[in-house]
Design a protein that fits this description.
CATH architecture: Orthogonal Bundle
Shape: globular
CATH superfamily: ADP-ribosylation/Crystallin J1
CATH class: Mainly Alpha
Number of strands: 0
CATH topology: ADP-ribosylglycohydrolase fold
Distance between the termini: 41 Å
Number of domains: 1
Oligomer: single chain
Helix content: 55-70%
Largest sheet: none
Strand content: under 5%
């Protein structure tokens, strides 16, 4: 739910520069602005559901999981042919971007790592699954270590008791630094120490990394700023999500990950009721989701349960219909933004009082 509300709030602002998004869509309080007040999550929330379904079908075998995930991602893409073509053209125009986000729809390894880590307790068990998941969609060298980083963060989030404050943000950060697989990731996390200790805002910290007017579409940028947003507003999901949405750029991915981390820490009760009321998961209705949650809670329950692996039925026709409708709204937003994109932004002030 945290992933869904974060993504639904950010989707209208996604890939807009920060100041241009302020001009077009305003600031807080945030509301759903993509489809007439309805909260429609983008691809990452559905990628999370696809991941859970593939895990249930796997019979607790990470190799079988990889095959089921591959099949589900491919049929999901059938509902988005024009968007797939647009991304191919965009990648060709931009040249080789080795650190850019994977272009496959519903193929974000970061949010899939969050789903896997929620279902499988213990890093030593989840790592093989996260590695299998990441290889399905990304050949980026740093992708596995960044996916593991999100998985480790989810494991820490699940150990948090907000009322007892048994894990502090600083302690969580130090734990992530200690468990990071590479020195490059450790160095990125170390840069968060001072801003976190000083209570610096997300916008300040993003600017310190060079992301002044929006988060770039790079996995390391998305992972690092999501973790900072989660730690900076450790007990306040609303603030964590709102401030990530307002960062601009690749804010949809950041808000989805931040919502997932904060949701794993605080639970559904921390999500504002007005965000939940107008949220839609079509074609997955409430009973479908309730049965799925019941099935994955403390999964796997035992050998017999794993062998049965009763995943919820896939809503293929409804999913393709949803993807097509979502694509139409995306085109409409693109067309409405053309005049605003042509207007120059006001010059930044050289000095601040």
């Amino acid at each position: 739910m945290g992933c869904a509300v974060g993504e639904a709030l950010a989707v209208a602002r996604n890939r807009l520069p920060r100041r241009r998004a302020f001009r077009l869509l305003g600031r807080t309080p945030l509301r759903y602005q993509f489809a007439a007040g309805r909260g429609i999550p983008a691809d990452r929330t559905h990628a999370l559901l696809i991941t859970v379904q593939a895990m249930l079908k796997s019979r607790a075998d990470h190799r079988s999981f990889g095959r089921h995930l591959w099949n589900r991602v491919n049929w999901y893409r059938l509902g988005m042919p024009f968007r797939s073509l647009f991304r191919v053209i965009t990648n060709f125009q931009n040249g080789d971007q080795s650190d850019s986000m994977p272009s496959k729809l519903a193929a974000d390894p970061l949010i899939r790592a969050a789903a896997i880590s929620l279902m499988i307790q213990g890093n030593q068990h989840a790592n093989r699954w996260i590695e299998t998941s990441t290889k399905q969609s990304s050949m980026i060298e740093s992708a596995p270590e960044l996916a593991m980083l999100i998985g480790n963060a989810i494991q820490i989030a699940q150990r948090v008791e907000p009322s007892n404050q048994n894990v502090t943000p600083s302690a969580a950060l130090e734990c992530l630094i200690a468990e990071a697989d590479s020195q490059r990731v450790k160095n990125l996390l170390i840069k968060l120490r001072d801003p976190l200790a000083q209570g610096k805002s997300l916008a300040f910290t993003a600017a310190a990394f060079g992301w002044i007017d929006g988060i770039p579409p790079k996995m390391d940028a998305i992972a690092i700023i999501s973790i900072y947003a989660w730690l900076r507003h450790f007990s306040r999901l609303r603030l964590a999500v709102e401030h990530t949405v307002l960062l601009g750029g690749e804010c949809c991915a950041v808000a989805a990950l931040t919502g997932a981390l904060s949701g794993a820490t605080l639970g559904k009760r921390a999500i504002p009721s007005e965000w939940l009321e107008n949220l839609t998961f079509f074609p997955h209705d409430k009973s479908w989701r309730k049965n799925l949650v019941s099935r994955v809670k403390d999964w796997p329950h035992g050998v017999e349960d794993v062998q049965q692996a009763n995943a919820q039925p896939s809503q293929v026709t409804g999913q393709i219909l949803r993807n097509c409708v979502f694509g139409c709204f995306s085109v409409l937003h693109f067309l409405l933004r053309i005049p605003a994109r042509l207007m120059p932004l006001p010059q930044r002030s050289e000095s601040r009082g």
